[in-house]
UniProtKB/TrEMBL annotation:
Residues 1-23 form the signal peptide. InterPro entries: S04_transporter_CS, SLC26A/SulP_dom, SLC26A/SulP_fam, STAS_dom, STAS_dom_sf. This is Solute carrier family 26 member 2. It comes from the Eukaryota.
Length: 665
């Protein structure tokens, strides 16, 4: 009966037109039913799945407390990081508000806080400043100044309007790359040392960019390579124009925030929630600036008018996308890498699972949807995630509470921050860089643990800080790739293993990498060097001596002398009759790798040395078989064992000059 069914299916497939078969298969895959729609909806919007199981009595207090505290902390930080992204303060509040809501609906991590992240704000600010310059806007922040933008088809766009247009378009493009095109898979190739070095280098750039606000200087942002060094040169040249009011305010805020932040860190285990000293400083500084009339009397640079409510949505500027696509790509990679690493770290700590694919969609739509409401790029933020965890967060509902707190500020409180000095916002940014800058103290430990990772960290950090931020990411990726290639081209010596002993007449060689086109030459070179017998050189020596022997006929004594010299090299290796190659670290072979092993077997066979491949995995065995390595006619047998000791014992049992090449697994 089964045979008849198979024949029927075969005839059905061969007789029916291929278009009809394809149509049936596509129709089956694309069929729409209520069950499929429900499953797709649950997979796409995870809150539908977990919200009905929400344990209100047990979880609501922790979610409400953590969400409220994060919302309070986000108010000053959102306003401050808007400065870094070259935006008005209101747009930072918009960004944090929309990101909190959307991730609650689409995210699978219960603990991470999605919002403004300093490194991404730096990247956004660099792009915005570049595009403002190209559009003809001056470097100052005069909101009424117009650029060379064609406004014939719409309302007049001043500097602030064009800045958020660029940022929103950049955010939309990055969101599409993350959520729809799913380029986040590239982040798999970003090592922890690379990301840490990139973040530290970017932190140095952020610190440098905020010094002008701490001193009250009106300097344009430096673009291009070497911006950090150029910025410091510009700062030293303009020290004489320092605003004393801003400088004194900056020093006082630093004297308050640095020790209080340290106290929060030191006593975080005893405190139910971190004390929001940043908010206290912002309130005190705003009141002092307002009643002291710092802007009118001393010329301090203040936040300015912060409107209430929401502005109508607007489409991205499609014409800008070709200019910012490369920048959006690097932003997408960094944002996704940070988000996924944090979500997986906290999920593992608390014993639940996150879906990386869904996280890709979530962080993508956390950028796509808000980009229509004048927001800039977001990702997970470590400091606020730690605050959520430490204050009892249980589910994503805490994100909704955070959004409600921000909504209150947007609708009622925002205009009260008009007199807040920008130097206070710069102090908040600088103080929050402490964690990244402390990585410099970890360099000796990194060097002791793994020198290659330490080198990658140093190269990425130095390039990001001293040359260019985006270039630092690229250099770090290339450096990591070269380190991986270097690690695949190394060999382990006997001295690397303790307690190992050599065997008479048998040499064991272990290569700690796959054998493929990039390292097959080095594999052979390492093998010949460590075994001490290079078959290529030995055969060349023999041919040369044979040629000399044929040319010279100088008597029996000279002939005997020539024979002795011919065998001098072989006499040094007369104890080597078997060579066992331990292939357990060899994960795969390509065509070049198979051919390299063929050459090794053939060359050693001509010298009377047996070659055996030990402990090959199934992938390597399949590659050897498909590549024609086994050839019983040429004496290459397929004999399989499971341990290296069995392979050595088998090698000893063979006759010393049979010249066979076997495979021992």
């Amino acid at each position: 009966w089964s045979t008849a069914v198979c024949i029927y299916n075969f005839l059905l497939l061969t007789l029916l037109p291929w278009k009809e078969v394809l149509k049936k298969k596509v129709g089956k895959k694309c069929s729409c039913s209520s069950a499929r729609v429900k499953a797709l909806l649950i997979d796409s919007i995870p809150i539908i799945k977990w919200l009905p199981r929400y344990q209100f009595k047990d979880w609501i207090i922790g979610d409400a407390m953590s969400g409220l505290i994060v919302g309070i902390l986000l108010v000053p930080q959102s306003i401050a990081y808007s400065l870094l992204a070259e935006q008005d303060p209101i747009y930072g509040l918009y960004t944090s508000f929309f990101a909190s809501i959307i991730y609650t609906l689409l995210g699978t991590s219960r603990h991470i806080s999605v919002g403004i992240f300093g490194v991404l704000c730096l990247l956004v600010g660099q792009v915005v400043d570049r595009e403002l310059t190209l559009a003809g806007y001056p470097s100052d922040t005069n909101q009424t100044t117009l650029g060379n933008v064609d406004n014939s088809t719409g309302p007049i766009c001043d500097r602030s309007c064009y800045a958020i247009m660029v940022a929103a378009t950049l955010t939309f493009t990055a969101g599409v790359l993350m959520g729809l095109l799913q380029v986040g898979f590239v982040s798999v190739y970003l090592s922890d040392s690379l990301l840490s070095g990139f973040a530290t280098g970017a932190s140095l750039t952020i610190l440098t960019s905020q010094i002008k606000y701490l001193l009250g200087l009106h300097l344009p942002r430096v673009q291009g390579w070497g911006s950090l060094i150029k910025t410091w040169i510009s700062l030293f040249k303009n020290l004489g124009h320092t605003n004393l009011c801003d400088l004194i305010t900056s020093v006082l805020c630093l004297l308050v925030l640095v020790p209080t932040k340290e106290l929060n860190d030191r006593f975080k285990a005893k405190l139910k929630a971190p004390i929001p000293f940043e908010l206290f400083v912002v309130i005190a500084a705003t009141l002092a600036s307002h009643f002291g009339q710092f802007e009118e009397t001393y010329g301090s640079n203040v936040a300015g008018n912060i409107p209430t409510g929401f502005m109508p949505p607007q489409l991205p500027n499609w014409s800008l996308i070709p200019n910012i696509a490369v920048d959006a790509f690097s932003i997408a990679i960094v944002g996704f890498a940070i988000t996924v690493s944090l979500s997986e770290m906290f999920a593992k700590k608390h014993g639940y699972m996150v879906d990386p694919n869904q996280e890709m969609y979530a962080i993508g739509f956390c950028n796509i949807i808000p980009s229509f409401f004048r927001c800039f790029t977001t990702s997970a933020a470590l400091t606020k995630t730690l605050v959520k965890e430490s204050t009892g967060c249980q589910t994503q509902i805490s994100g909704l509470v955070t959004a409600l707190a921000l909504l209150l500020v947007l609708l009622v409180i925002a205009p009260a921050f008009y007199s807040l000095q920008k130097c206070v916002l710069a102090v908040i940014i600088v103080v929050n860089l402490r964690g990244a800058l402390r990585k410099f103290g970890d360099i000796p430990q990194m060097w002791r643990v793994n020198r290659l990772d330490a080198i990658i960290w140093l190269i990425t950090m130095a390039t990001s800080a001293l040359v260019n931020t985006e270039l630092g990411l690229l250099v770090g990726v290339l450096g990591s790739a070269f380190c991986v290639l270097g690690r695949t081209q190394s060999v382990q010596d006997l001295a690397s293993y303790k307690g190992c002993q050599s065997q008479a007449e048998v040499a064991v060689f272990r290569y700690e990498a796959p054998i493929y086109y990039a390292n097959q030459a080095l594999f052979k070179k390492s093998l010949y060097r460590h075994v001490g017998l290079d078959p290529v050189k030995e055969k060349a020596r023999r041919r040369k001596l044979d040629k000399q022997r044929n040319q010279k006929q100088e008597g029996e004594d000279q002939k005997q002398e020539m024979d002795v010299s011919t065998n001098v090299y072989l006499l040094q290796h007369n104890s080597l009759h078997k060579l066992v190659i331990d292939c357990s670290p060899v994960l795969f072979l390509d065509t070049a790798g198979v051919n390299a092993l063929k050459e090794v077997c053939k060359d050693y066979k001509e010298l009377g040395v047996n070659v055996l491949l030990a402990r090959c995995n199934t992938s390597v065995i399949d590659s050897l078989r498909r590549g024609g390595y086994y050839d019983p006619k040429k004496g290459i047998k397929d004999i399989q064992f499971h341990t290296l000791s069995d392979a050595v014992s088998y090698a000893k049992s063979l006759k010393s000059q049979n010249g066979d090449c076997d495979t021992v697994v």
